[in-house]
Design goal:
This protein is an all-beta fold and 552 residues long. The protein contains two helices and 32 strands.
């Protein structure tokens, strides 16, 4: 969402069993790989719609150097005032605004050495103002808003020979987040240096050694007057019943990791054993993660695959820093096991099927020990089990698309004596169908349909009157944590494109409609002042957009 997809060469989703080169994750990993700018000639595009506007330009500077620049800005803040009238109870002080930019340079020194530089950043802003009404928590009035800013710069030095491939990449990252919640606020600034080395050594025709390291010194400045952030499983986050904590601190930390793996090709079977070690200075602890992946080319169109191992993740920063968190924590841990197959049905159609089981323990959770002076400990545990299938039609001249379906169950408990419950984001069923069809010269129709199980929620069994501030407080049964669900979510999006080709440029016009059949999906539960009436906060019933794009 903050990096122009036209500057990417790969987007890979690893839902589990991923290799030793990936760390600080116990669930899954999304890996993005940027591409080199074009070297044949200068080109680019300008694309503007009712949602945002984007410009991209790229091309060669010399025979050995090429550059790319991209910029995107929202247009919602220009259009929304024309569509939505001011409300007496809710008004924007700053319309939703976002922008991002990317700049990339690639320089080929010679056949073996090259350098690339990536600079990119993003900014998001939203502001609301509310007035007190009889249905509202008195603490939830005033200014609400957020500002999020990130800035990154990375250098890649690459070396490639017949024996060794190396990618050394130091980077500097800066970010700032500001949240206002009525009378409360949170302002956090962070700076991180990220130094990585990824190397491949071709030991033999059947053996490739992969190894690398990563070092991340980081420092934050936290200034706040706000309640402790809600965590997994929290059922009531009303500000009137939660203590606000004040801080003005500058914590720092150093995170380090190293990994080694060996890709062994033994005829039709490929084995990749690996080992990763992670260390965090603030925790003063290390975590060892052995892993193994296997692929077996049974016949030309059929591949069997399996993998798994140990995976570790650091606690969130606020869980490790006082006054919101505490010391004495350790890495969260997961044991993955997965297996499946890939089958090429035809040259253009393939299917990917896999099942998985993940055992989770050492989960950070509020302490159930009433004698402990620590708010968090690592007593939570759980599991996730499920399966996924994807039927894909590879891109051809006129068509591409896929259908994916997953079924899963994710359960956990929050320490000794607590009942087993669903994770907050558990979704039993998730179906996505996507297709793009060029049905005539210059005309293309695309669409996406998604159907998902509603997220778990904790039902409210009643309410009590709070005489201290004149509001009602919801009553929850701890045994019913996440025992109910929101309604199913489903949505159909369609897009129609028309292309005109000229001598030196192309013009695209398109109509994009999200939520075609006007189904306003539930976003979160909503209740009236005394919790006697309940409903949902809903998404927009429809979001149409018209756009123009000029390619040159």
């Amino acid at each position: 969402s903050v990096y122009n997809s036209d500057l990417l060469s790969e987007i890979n989703l690893y839902t589990g069993g991923f290799g030793a080169e990936f760390g600080d994750a116990t669930g899954g990993v999304v890996a993005l790989k940027s591409r080199k700018p074009r070297t044949d000639r200068w080109g680019g595009y300008v694309d503007t719609s009712m949602i945002d506007a984007t410009a991209l330009a790229e091309g060669p500077v010399t025979d050995d150097m090429s550059v790319a620049f991209a910029l995107r800005r929202s247009t919602l803040d220009l259009i929304m005032p024309l569509v939505f009238e001011d409300s007496a109870d809710l008004s924007f002080t700053a319309m939703p605004v976002y922008y991002d930019y990317q700049a990339k340079m690639d320089y080929r020194i010679n056949d073996r050495h090259s350098i690339s530089v990536d600079v990119y950043g993003a900014y998001d802003e939203l502001g609301l103002a509310t007035e007190k009404t009889g249905d509202m928590d008195p603490d939830m009035t005033g200014a609400f808003g957020m500002e999020v800013f990130t800035q990154s710069a990375a250098l890649h030095y690459r070396f490639k020979s017949d024996l060794i491939e190396s990618d050394f990449s130091p980077a500097l990252l800066f970010g700032e987040q500001r949240f206002d919640l009525g009378p409360y606020f949170l302002d956090i600034k962070g700076v991180m240096v990220d130094v990585k080395e990824d190397m491949r050594i071709h030991l033999a025709k059947c053996s490739t050694l992969k190894l690398g390291f990563q070092v991340q010194p980081r420092m934050f400045h936290l200034e706040s007057d706000i309640m402790r952030p809600p965590k997994e499983g929290d059922v009531d986050t009303r500000t009137s019943t939660n203590e606000a904590l004040t801080s003005n601190i500058t914590p720092s930390d150093v995170v380090g990791a190293a990994y080694v793996a060996n890709e062994l090709e033994l005829g039709p079977v490929t084995l990749t054993p690996g080992l990763r070690v992670d260390y965090d200075r603030a925790l003063a602890k290390a975590a060892l993660s052995p892993r193994l992946a296997a692929r077996w080319q049974v016949v030309e169109p059929l591949v069997l695959k399996a993998g798994g191992g140990l995976y570790h993740r650091l606690p969130d920063v606020d869980e490790m820093v006082e006054p919101y968190g505490n010391d004495g924590l350790t890495f969260e841990r997961a044991l993955h096991g997965m297996g499946g197959f890939e089958l090429a049905i035809t040259d253009t159609v393939d299917v990917d099927v896999q099942g998985y089981y993940k055992h989770l323990d050492q989960r950070v959770t509020p302490s159930q020990d009433t004698d402990s002076d620590r708010y968090y400990d690592n007593s939570g545990k759980g599991y996730s089990v499920g399966g996924e299938v994807m039927l894909r039609h590879k891109p051809t001249e006129n068509f591409f698309g896929w259908i994916s379906y997953s079924i899963s169950r994710s359960m956990r408990d929050d320490g000794p004596g607590t009942p087993e419950r669903l994770f907050d984001k558990d979704q039993t069923h998730n179906l996505i169908a996507l297709a793009s069809w060029q049905f005539a010269k210059g005309w293309r129709l695309g669409g996406r349909f998604q159907l998902t199980t509603g997220e778990p929620r904790t039902p409210i069994s009643g309410s009590v009157f709070n005489a201290d501030n004149g509001t009602y407080l919801p009553v929850f049964d701890p045994k019913d944590n996440n025992a109910a669900r929101q309604e199913w979510s489903h949505q159909l999006d369609l897009r129609l494109d028309k292309q005109w080709v000229f001598d030196t440029w192309m013009l695209h016009t398109y109509i994009d409609v999200q939520n075609v059949y006007l189904h306003a999906n539930a976003v979160a539960p909503a209740n009236n002042y005394d919790f006697s009436e309940r409903g949902y906060v809903r998404d927009l019933a429809i979001l149409p957009s018209i756009g123009l794009k000029a390619d040159f």
